[in-house]
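Lab notebook, bench 4. Still working through the backlog of constructs that have no structural model yet. Next entry is a single chain of 344 residues. Request: give me the structure tokens for it.
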Amino acid sequence: METHAVPRDRLMVPQHRFQRPSLSSVKACFEKVHEASEKVYHGGGVWGKRMLGEAYPPMYRNTAWRMIGYAEALKVEDNELYRKRLMEGGEYLLREQQANGSYLWWCYETHGHPDTDHLLYCTANPGVALLEVYRLTRDERFLAASGRAADWAARHGISRNNNYNSFAVWHLCEHNRVTGGQKCLEAAIHRNREGASPRQLPNGAWAGHNAWIFYHALIIRGFAALYGALPDGHEIRRELREPVIMALNHLIEEQRENGHFRSCFDPEEWEKSRDPKSHYSVHKPDIFDACALQALVCVQDWTDFDTTNALCGALASPMPEDLDGQGMPHLAYGAGYRWLAGQK
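Model written out:
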């Protein structure tokens, strides 16, 4: 396993220098993923493949990630169809929420995996999407639904999967950002310390399952969300600096000359994924990573670390072959479009 140590106190000088892409080129990327999304739209706020057959819904990330992407694009341009799709998704997510605030995972088993760790990520995505609708409309129904989702996450135990915990940290911090409630912030601090940060290697990454660059990026996003939710000088913010810097340095080292990223640094995990039966066998050695793109936007939005170069590289890199991606390219290009529009 590669354990090349990275600096803990400063960001590394990048191996590659990237030019900032034009706003029109990034807008065109978002329009392409929108067109791809329209091809898998079932109506009523529902997108994507039904993994368990027609009697069950697609995974909710298909809706939530697209909603967040549309909300980001709407911060740049008013588009009637984008707004319509966002609202359709919001109404759908209100209907699908469980009484306890969670969202089920419609994959592998028809019971939806109630109250399992899987729901940390299945619930966080709709939670953030609902907040975006609330920000746009000030309709209290969406804020209340996000609050129920956050309460469920705050009650649920710590997962052994770092990126699952980081999903919840992201939503808890976003809910805190809107409401100012300390309960969510305290829950995010606890979950990040106990479930997202542990087992980080000297190379700034995590072994095994979370060695995949997209899971690594999700952990960075959680770090950035918590860092930004804390006031300057807060002791937890000081505690976070080292793991954030290390994680960002790993991401910077893994970025290729064309802006893509190495998909997995862990040789053992990579070898396992070469089994054709593995869900990860589809991944090539170097990939466009929508999660990294969004995470880098979050770092720029919420922290004092400058990763502009890496972000420009990701934004300008060749688009993924799979423009669907369960909606993650939609979210990432929407976030990148909004970020780039705000730059001078």
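Notes after review: Residues 23-341 form a domain with the Glycosyltransferase fold (CATH 1.50.10.10). The chain has a mean pLDDT of 97. Flag for follow-up if needed.
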